[in-house]
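FORM 12-B: Structure-to-Sequence Request
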C-alpha cells in the first residue's frame, strides 16, 4: 500500500509539472495543476 501511495503521489506531481507543456492558457494550467494536487493528496492519504 505504501508503494501504491507513492506512485499515485508521484503521478499527481508529474501531472502538475506536465501542465507547463500541455497548455498555454492560465486557466487550463490552473485546472490541470489543481487536478494534479488532488491526485497527490489522494496518494498521500492512500
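FORM 12-B RESPONSE
SEQUENCE OUT:
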Amino acid at each position: 500500500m505504501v508503494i501504491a501511495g507513492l506512485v499515485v503521489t508521484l503521478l499527481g506531481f508529474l501531472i502538475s509539472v506536465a501542465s507547463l507543456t500541455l497548455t498555454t492558457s492560465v486557466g487550463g494550467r490552473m485546472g490541470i495543476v489543481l487536478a494534479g494536487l488532488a491526485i497527490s493528496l489522494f496518494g498521500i492519504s492512500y
